[in-house]
Amino acid sequence: MRIFSYHLVETSVLSGLKAMIAPPSPDRIPGLTHAECMTGMVLGSPVFSFSRMLIGQLVLFAQWENEAALDHFLANDNIGKIFADGWHVRLIPARQWGSFSKFDIPKDIAEIDLSDSPVVAVTVARMKLLEVPRFIRWGRPVEKLVRDHPGVLLSLASIRLPQTVSTFSIWRSQKEMTDMVRGHSDVPRPKRHLNAMQERNRKDFHFEFTTLRFKAIAEFGEWKGKRYLTWE
Questions:
Q1: pLDDT digits (tens, 9 = 90+) for 109-168
Q2: Within its chain, how far is the Cα of 54 from the centroid?
Q3: What φ, ψ does residue 83 adopt, rounded to 5°?
């Protein structure tokens, strides 16, 4: 069964640069469909700040033919061994909006019951460089909304220069996430996400963009001394 994985690890700047220069590729890693290797960012941080691009904090979002391929990567690949020392979650897709050409996602994703479990949301986009200032103007308020939302268990952003940006969040429930998207949350300025999506529909910020909703099937390691998902 095809799965996705999302990885976080704190490493040295040198290891971080090596991973960014030669990221995981299907050409040399058996069973890898596609991977986006990025550096972490703090959601809502000032545009010109060190927290906007954390070279020593690596992010990997990848799709695999099966869990065995992921296990082999973590145990045997030089970059995989870096990520093996961090935290990761394994995911199966529950819903998709938009598209991102290098991931292989079925058009008709099987219905998955998310009512009694945390929900993982990932966005990935290729930016139009001339639209970056406008994207920041509309995007940073959304980052703060997600970062500070009471329904969020973990949230962060990531980037790979010059054009790839991504967000990741774990929500306590699907309802809390969808209420945020629709502007119905009981928080200050609840329509920030809704307004940004309307602006994107008016004039797109991206060459390609997808939002993916996932069910988590396993969690490995800790991030910032914590685990974020539990199973009975």
A1: 766 778 778 999 999 999 998 988 898 889 888 888 999 999 999 999 998 888 899 999
A2: 15
A3: -70, -25
Contact partners, residue 47, CB within 8 Å, separation at least 6: 136, 140
Q: What backbone torsions phi and psi does residue 208 show, to the nearest 5 degrees?
A: -150, 150
Token pair in block for residue 220: 């490995």
Q: Strands 54-64 and 32-41: what pairing?
A: antiparallel
Structure-token pair, residue 137 = 């103007």
Give me 214's structure tokens: 């996932």
Burial class (CB in 10 A: 0-12, 13-18, 19+), 176: middle
Distance, CA of 39 to CA of 56 (rounded, Å): 7
- Residue 106 buriedness (CB in 10 A; 0-12 / 13-18 / 19+): exposed
Separation between Cα atoms, residue 77 and residue 91, nearest integer Å: 21
Give residue 227's Cα distance to chain centre. 17
CA dihedral 201, 189, 154, 178 (to 10 degrees): -60
- Predicted TM-score (pTM) above 0.85: yes
CA-CA distance, 221 to 208, in Å (whole number)?
32
Taking 80 as the threshold, does the pLDDT of residue 53 lie above it? Answer: no
All structural domains of the chain with their residue ranges: 3-220
Domain spanning 3-220 has what CATH number? 3.30.70.100
Q: Which residue has the tokens 């991102």?
A: 100
Average pLDDT of the chain? 89
